[in-house]
Design a protein that fits this description.
binds 1-deoxynojirimycin, alpha/beta, five-stranded parallel β-sheet, six-stranded mixed β-sheet, Immunoglobulin-like, Rossmann fold, globular, 749 residues
C-alpha cells in the first residue's frame, strides 16, 4: 500500500506521541551485524569490538534499540533479525536493512569507476537496477551508494568507488545510479533507497591518505565537490551519508553549516542523514567533542539523523542529553520523523519480511548476468592499439598464452567491495578466452609471479577470501621461466596485470602508482620474446604505465570487470564487441604529477604549461576522456546556431562525427567549454556535454548539445555566490579533452 503524505504524517505523529526518548534514540541507531567466518570469531586481531558485536546487537534488538542494521545479506537471517526488531519494539517498528551495494550483490557489475568509464547513464541506471533487484530480494532496503565523491588524487584508494575527477560526468553518473537504485520513488517495487556519500569533500584527503583531513577552497567545494550530490538529491536520493574527516577543520559529522545550511538549505535535501561507521563516536577522536554525550548532541544538532555504529553508540546518550537540555524534543522528533517516513514509504510496516524462495530465483536471474557482461564490454577503455593489433582474429591463431597473476583470479576479477560473491560463477579472463576459442586454438596459462602483498592487512581480509594467496607449492622462478616459455611459443600473449583487489578501496591508499610486485619485470620479459603482446589492465586507479605505453602495442583497461568480466574481455579481444569507454580521469605519467586534472586554470606563463616540472612533462600519459576504438572517427562541421546570446540565452552546438573505418563502433562525443574572461579565472576546459553514439562503418552522425545558463553558471569565491559572466566562450567538440576542433560564441551582458 502506498501512503500519501498526509497519512504518513498522521501515522508518525501517532507513533511519536507514544515513544519514549530511549525508543526514539533506538530508531536513530544503526548497528553493523557481522556474520564472520568461524575462524574469524576467535581471531584476536579483530578486536573484541567486532567479535562481541552480534551479541550486543541481539540485546539491543530485544529492547527496541535498533532502527537499522547493516551488513546482513542472508534472507533467512534478515527475517530472523527483523522479527526480533518488530517484536522488540512496543510499536512494532521494523528495522531498515542497509548494505554496501556498491556494484552488485550476487551478480557483480564492473566497479563504479568502470561504470563511469562507459559514459553511458542508461547502462549505469540499468546496472544499479539489477543490483537493487537482487538486494531487495534478499531483504536489503537501502544501499550505501552511490559514492559521488570527486577524486583527483589516485593515491586515494576510494577513487575506485566514484566517477573520477569531473563534476559534470560525476553528476550524470550520480543521478543515473540513484534512478537505478530507487526507481521513480522510494518504495518502488524491486528497488532500494539510495544513499549518496560521503558528505562532503572526502575525496580530497590530504596526500590521498584515506580518512585524513580535507582543506578545500570554496570554489572547488561548490563547483567540483557539491554538484554530484546536488544531482543525486535532485534525482530523489532518500538518504545522505556524512564523511569521516574534518572539512576545513570541522568534522563533517558534527558540522552544522555543512549538514544543515549546505545540505538542506542550499541543496534542498529532505531525506535523512546517516553518519559513516563510528563517525559520530569519533567526534571525540577528532578532539571536537569531549565525550559521547556531547558527540551525540552536537551531531544531532548539526543535522545528523542516524548514527552508524559498530558497538556502544553515542546516540545511546541522547536521552541523557535531552534531560540535560543539550538538545530539545523537537530536534529528536525531527530526526525520528525522517527515518520513520522512509520506513513507511517503503511499506515496511505492512510487509517487513522477505520471501526466501523468491530471493533464490532473483539472484539466479540470467538476465542480470547479461547486464553485467554488457556493462563490462562498455566500460573497457582501449588505451593503445599500435598497428591495429586488436581485435585478434581467432581464425589466424594457433596458440595463445594467457599470462599474469590476475589472468585467472576470480576474486580479483570481481574487484573490491563485494562480499556475497560466488567465485565459481565468475568468469576470469582465462575462462573467457578458453570459452571463446574452444578447442580450435591452444590456450596456455601461467601466473608468472607470486601474488603481491600489502604491507598491512586490508580491513576486508577478515571476511575471508579477500587476501590473495599463491597456490600450494608455488615456485616463483620456475613459474616465471614457464610463463616466458609459453609466451615464446605462442602466436600472441595476453598479459593480465594491475592491482590485486585488496590493494584498492577503503583504507587502501598508496604512495606509488607502480605495478605492484614483479609485474613490470614479467611484462618486459614477455615483450622481449618478440611475441605480439596485449596488456589487459585490472585496476581502479591509474597506474604507472609509462613503459607499457611506449613498448606494448595494445593496452586494454578492463578495470575490475565483475562476475562476467572475462567473457566481456574475450568479446573485446576477438572483436565480438568494440571498445568505446573513455577515461573518467586524467592518467598521470607517475605519482609525482598527482594531482593532475584537465580543467586547470590558465595561469602565469600558460604557454609553458608543458614545462612546469624540469624532470618530467606536465602533460599526462593519457588525457581525460581518452579511449580508442577499433573504428576510427573524425570530426567536422562544428557549428553554433547563434554567435551571440544574452546571459540567459542558449546556444546549440552541433558537430559531425564520422566513422572512417570498416568496424561499427561507439564514440563518446564530448563537448568542452572555456570562458575567456570574467569575474574569475575559469578552467582552460570544462566538460559540459557528452553523448555515447553508435556510428556504423562509413557512416556519420550529427550530434547537438545545448549550452545554456546552467552550463555556464559557476560559484564565484569573490562574490560568494553563483554568477553568469558575459564573455567570449571557446567551445570544442571531439574525442577527448584535447579535442582540437573548436569555435566561439559570445555572451553579452
Ligand atoms: C565505511 C565506509 O566509509 C562507508 O562508505 C561504508 O558505507 C560504511 N563503512 C559501511 O560499510
Amino acid at each position: 500500500m502506498t501512503l500519501d503524505d498526509e497519512a504518513i504524517r498522521t501515522r508518525i505523529d501517532g507513533l511519536l506521541a507514544e515513544m519514549t526518548p530511549e525508543e526514539k534514540a533506538g530508531q536513530l541507531t544503526q548497528f553493523f551485524f557481522f556474520t564472520l567466518p568461524p575462524e574469524a570469531e576467535d581471531n584476536p586481531a579483530l578486536g573484541l569490538e567486532v567479535a562481541a558485536q552480534p551479541r550486543a546487537v541481539e540485546a539491543a534488538l530485544a529492547r527496541g534499540g535498533v532502527g537499522s542494521l547493516l551488513f546482513v545479506t542472508d534472507p533467512a537471517q534478515i527475517n530472523r533479525l527483523q522479527r526480533a526488531a518488530v517484536e522488540g519494539s512496543r510499536h512494532g517498528i521494523p528495522a531498515l536493512f542497509g548494505f554496501d551495494v556498491v556494484h552488485g550483490l550476487r551478480t557483480v557489475l564492473p566497479v563504479p569507476i568502470a561504470m563511469a568509464a562507459s559514459w553511458d547513464p542508461a547502462l549505469i541506471e540499468a546496472g544499479q537496477a539489477v543490483a537493487a533487484a537482487e538486494a531487495r530480494a534478499v531483504g536489503i532496503h537501502w544501499a550505501f551508494a552511490p559514492m559521488v565523491d570527486i577524486a583527483r588524487d589516485p593515491r586515494w584508494g576510494r577513487i575506485v568507488e566514484g566517477a573520477g575527477e569531473d563534476p559534470f560526468l560525476g553528476s550524470a553518473v550520480a543521478a543515473a545510479q540513484v534512478r537505478g537504485f530507487q526507481g521513480e520513488r522510494i518504495g518502488a517495487p524491486g528497488r532500494i533507497v539510495a544513499g549518496p556519500k560521503h558528505f562532503a569533500g572526502y575525496g580530497y584527503a590530504l596526500g590521498g591518505r584515506d580518512y585524513d583531513e580535507v582543506s578545500l577552497g570554496d570554489a572547488d567545494l561548490w563547483n567540483v565537490v557539491l554538484p554530484p550530490f546536488k544531482a543525486a538529491i535532485d534525482a530523489g536520493a532518500g538518504t545522505v551519508m556524512t564523511a569521516y574527516m574534518a572539512l576545513n577543520g570541522i568534522p563533517a559529522t558534527g558540522n552544522r553549516w555543512l549538514l544543515t545550511d549546505v545540505l538542506r538549505e542550499a541543496l534542498g535535501f529532505d531525506g535523512f542523514t546517516v553518519s559513516d561507521a563510528n563517525a559520530t563516536r569519533n567526534l571525540t577522536t577528532h578532539g571536537f567533542a569531549p565525550d559521547l554525550r556531547s558527540a551525540a548532541s552536537r551531531a544531532l544538532d548539526a543535522g545528523l539523523d542516524m548514527e552508524m555504529a559498530i558497538t556502544d553508540p553515542a546516540f545511546d546518550h541522547l536521552p541523557a542529553a535531552l534531560e540535560a537540555g543539550e538538545i530539545d524534543e523537537t530536534q529528536l522528533d525531527t530526526a525520528v520523523r525522517r527515518v520513520l517516513e522512509v520506513k513507511l514509504r517503503l511499506g515496511l510496516f505492512d510487509d517487513p519480511y522477505v520471501d526466501e524462495d523468491r530471493a533464490r530465483v532473483v539472484l539466479a536471474d540470467p538476465a542480470h548476468r547479461e547486464v553485467a557482461r554488457e556493462a563490462a564490454r562498455r566500460a573497457a577503455v582501449l588505451l593503445r592499439n599500435e598497428g591495429g593489433l586488436l581485435p585478434l582474429d581467432a581464425a589466424d591463431l594457433g596458440s595463445v598464452a594467457v599470462l599474469g597473476p590476475l589472468a585467472d583470479s576470480a576474486r580479483d576479477t570481481i574487484g573490491p567491495w563485494v562480499f556475497d560473491f560466488e567465485l565459481a560463477e565468475t568468469v576470469t579472463v582465462l575462462d573467457g578466452i578458453r570459452d571463446r576459442l574452444g578447442d580450435a586454438v591452444r590456450v596456455d596459462s601461467a601466473r608468472g609471479i607470486p601474488v603481491g602483498r600489502r604491507t598491512f592487512p586490508s580491513m576486508f581480509d577478515m571476511f575471508g577470501g579477500n587476501a590473495p594467496e599463491d597456490p600450494e607449492g608455488f615456485e616463483p622462478e620456475a613459474e616465471f621461466t614457464r610463463a616466458i616459455r609459453l609466451a615464446t611459443d605462442a602466436d600472441v600473449a595476453v598479459v593480465v596485470l594491475g592491482e590485486w583487489q585488496n590493494m584498492i578501496g577503503e583504507a587502501a591508499s598508496r604512495s606509488s602508482l607502480d605495478l605492484p610486485g614483479r609485474q613490470l619485470e614479467l611484462l618486459q620479459a614477455v615483450v622481449a620474446t618478440g611475441t605480439p603482446t596485449v596488456l589487459v589492465v585490472m585496476n581502479g586507479r591509474p597506474l604507472d604505465l609509462r613503459w607499457a605505453a611506449a613498448h606494448v602495442p595494445a593496452v586494454l583497461d578492463v578495470w575490475y570487470p565483475g562476475s562476467q568480466g572475462g567473457a566481456a574481455v574475450a568479446d573485446l579481444l576477438f572483436g565480438d564487441a568494440v571498445p568505446g569507454g573513455k577515461l573518467p580521469f586524467t592518467w598521470p605519467r607517475s605519482v609525482g604529477q598527482v594531482p593532475i586534472v584537465y580543467s586547470n586554470l590558465t595561469s602565469h606563463e600558460p604557454e609553458n604549461l608543458g614545462r612546469r616540472y624540469w624532470d618530467e612533462a606536465s602533460t599526462p600519459l593519457f588525457p581525460f576522456g581518452h579511449g580508442l576504438s577499433y573504428a576510427r572517427f573524425s570530426y567536422a562541421d562544428l557549428a553554433v546556431d547563434t554567435d551571440t546570446v544574452a546571459l540567459d540565452g542558449v546556444v546549440t552546438v552541433t558537430a559531425t562525427v564520422r566513422n572512417e573505418s570498416n568496424h561499427d563502433g561507439d564514440e563518446v562525443v564530448q563537448l568542452y567549454l572555456h570562458q575567456r574572461t570574467g569575474t574569475a579565472s575559469r578552467p582552460v576546459r570544462e566538460l559540459k556535454g557528452f553523448e555515447r553514439v553508435m556510428v556504423a562503418a562509413g557512416e556519420e552522425r550529427r550530434v547537438s548539445f545545448r549550452v545554456g545558463p546552467d552550463e555556464r553558471r559557476y560559484w564565484n569565491a569573490g562574490v560568494r555566490g553563483y554568477v553568469l559572466d558575459p564573455s567570449v566562450f571557446d567551445v570544442w567538440v571531439g574525442t577527448d579533452s584535447t579535442a582540437p576542433l573548436g569555435t566561439t560564441f559570445t555572451v553579452t551582458p
